[in-house]
């Protein structure tokens, strides 16, 4: 217990640390930091590890000296590529990518040549990264580049489409994990990952014996034999690597006896035993020497030595590969293997608990940089293999001209592999046995909040179809790292998450200097380890480097070095008392979070520091350098005691850290909810989903964007009650909603089931009015015979005029044909045109082979290089408008894309005012549709003459328990009266007492209630009505986009049943449950109409004699007769079933009853 601090001094403006942190770390900067680390460090390491390609037969070699990525450019057909902005790429359907240049040295005709800046491919560039042209630009410079200054970046642009790489949850690498397996019992595993190899080692326990389970062997390998294959042949040495306790020895003795049973005593015996149980015999079998006795490695013959050497190489490459070893000294790996066996024994005896896979200290997050590094490594190795193959096929010695490899480099290879993976989202890397789908997604541009939420999304590799609660539940270690509210409903619940506001993900850093530094402090060599109770093994990123007898002092020393800036601020240290080990971690993918350091129960951050921060004298990095703020990850957090605020420091506990702001445990989307701590938890989760669907302001450059689909609110407003997150995320500058005057009361019965009553006059004034923008367009490309697609103006309609003597004269009317009314001479619709259904917007024509010229075209229907212009004709393939309501042409764009393809885009605008059935929502998960639109004169009004915009049924509150909405109304009313924005932040918003006092001071009821008068009778209502402003969001779900009906329309070719789906003009499906309802109500004729008459009714010809389907009404092929062929009405699917059964050699026969025969006669 620490000494209590009797007079805590509250830190004012402590929340100023949050925007200071967000200016340098967190949120989208997670992706940007990871990508920058890849561009500046990882890509150089990959090239350095694969820096030589040689073909000795051709006396040729090539070495890479350096690699670097240039800012994005585009080749417009000129000699020099020109710089390109992200906005240009969006408009012109370009890929925002920079050139990958290398400096190489290679052999050319017995001459060593060095070249600099050789192009090997193009790298997709992340927006706002170090190689992006937007990096470091000011507000005004971004505006001149036609970019939104508030756009977070962190995504890619591939062929004009914005793509974001989602964060991926993975199990921690290079860590010993002991877990329970339903089939194999306790399993101890480690996933090793190094720059050279990646492997997984599993140690299992069967019949009180320990085995290595690996797919390279046909059987499970006894661990004792594996030790002997590593060169540890003495049983005493093996036991020393596992432990010195008698209980440990007693558990491992049965495994030692396995060596006697298998007649394995030496390293040679162990290697032979392993070799005989390989999945594929990859090595030469060893031959024993004369006596048949095992021979020592120093006296074995060459064949036996090959067996030992090859098997040790094999074991080196598959067992615990992350632990470094010098030559073939397996002692460090033997110690690690002994620790795995030791943990398994202790877990089996319940001395240590199994590891929790859901604990965030055992997880790592893969970001864009690490995922693209895997892609580039695979693509670069494939590129080198192709170069080797190219040189091998060319006889360089017999060439007349010097062989220059730079002319044979396939720059498209790396480019295509990277672009295809990011565009499709499929990370399929067979070299690393990686097959992941859905890694990238199209950035959601429904609103600014939706884009921010998409950038911070984190997915798990756990199967979404499995109904397991463990990985989906909120874990205690999520505090401050993962938002507890922002997760989708349905099968992805708990598996798709969002990071919290002040969460940061570390990047990989080299640990060589860290190991060298630690080796001089309290660290003893491993060979002196005796497994005493005070001896703790030290692991650095999962690699054992020594042991210490003073773990507490070592941990305090590392924290002191971190606070003093001697080591990186993201280095973490934690002590596992039960396992008797100290873990020092500097790897990438760890979730960490900043905290204020507390010493002697006093925060080291002072009020003077905070004032300097507000005045821009100090920055976030200065607080880190002073050691008053530090990052903690989930593991180190277990060794700390964190106070929630300054007042907790007086309760007598010895605190080590203090929260900066408790509201930062929420994510960026949940942080927009006012008073979320007063709502039921599921309501906050609902709002996180609906906040991303709210129509608002997409970006500051939304009027010059040509997105496929874009929703814009005409009159967006900033909310009257805001949280601190709203201001930090600039949501008040890009809002998505309006402050509506809401009356909580019943009205007319049209407000049941959360339906809303809306004031018609408010809609006339523009309340919740939105514009929907859709894009249509075409690409004009050049075909193989050098003929381009073309745009053509409207076709002129013709009319047939009947002349005397029955002659017909065809004359042009001068009017465009039906559908071409909007087209101009350039083949596109004019700006401002009103487009209705089936009208053509862009009249594109593409060349095809004439039907009369197929023979002359070598019998091919497609165009090829030998197709002449005389063989081609142009066929219409226009882009037309489809919709039940007209739209207006907003803009028309002509530009060029890659390969000098012409791009034509037409932007359509449609104004939507709310109608019955449109969906609205407050910021508290209170969703509902418009149930009735009422004239203003029929709506209730207050004494001040205010008429509500929305009337909400009060029955929506008791079961939902959204007290936050009641507080928001109170705060909005106080803010509107006082003329200032009120604070609704989590855990620290304005209290109800404060808001009530403001209402009283301005002459209003302290509860926010009003006396309303009926608009119909004029009499005052009998009850006080809770009345005031609430921020309402209009969601994208609108009746106009969902209304669907059809009488007749297209059918599928196979079954002749109506197509499915609104976009295909499909029918309305009658399923099993609807059929059951028809049967229950006895509406048999309606059932026949739905399932037969209106679906796929078909008159089939059936022969009464044989019962088979006849060929026609006049002939049965089976009976060779036409006398008894009748017509039977049946579903076409039934007739198709009979035919499919006949294809399977099953002969169905129809037997017609007498009633049917009589009716037919």
From TrEMBL:
Gene3D superfamilies on file: 2.40.50.150, 3.90.1070.20, 3.90.1100.10, DNA-directed RNA polymerase, subunit 2, domain 6, RNA polymerase alpha subunit dimerisation domain, RNA polymerase Rpb2, domain 2
Subcellular location: Nucleus
Molecular-function GO terms, alphabetical: DNA binding; DNA-directed RNA polymerase activity; metal ion binding; ribonucleoside binding
Residue span, DNA-directed RNA polymerase subunit 2 hybrid-binding domain: 669-1064
Pfam families per the UniProt record, alphabetical: RNA_pol_Rpb2_1, RNA_pol_Rpb2_2, RNA_pol_Rpb2_3, RNA_pol_Rpb2_4, RNA_pol_Rpb2_5, RNA_pol_Rpb2_6, RNA_pol_Rpb2_7
Organism: Paragonimus westermani
EC number: 2.7.7.6
Name under which the protein is recorded: DNA-directed RNA polymerase subunit beta
Positions of the RNA polymerase Rpb2 domain: 173-366, 441-505, 538-598, 620-662, 1066-1151
PANTHER family: DNA-DIRECTED RNA POLYMERASE I SUBUNIT 2
Stated role: DNA-dependent RNA polymerase catalyzes the transcription of DNA into RNA using the four ribonucleoside triphosphates as substrates.
Coiled coil: none
Keyword Nucleotidyltransferase: yes
EC supergroup of this enzyme: transferase
InterPro entries: DNA-dir_RNA_pol_su2, DNA-dir_RNAP_su2_dom, DNA-dir_RNAP_su2_hyb_sf, RNA_pol_bsu_CS, RNA_pol_bsu_protrusion, RNA_pol_Rpb2_2, RNA_pol_Rpb2_2_sf, RNA_pol_Rpb2_3
Similarity section: Belongs to the RNA polymerase beta chain family.
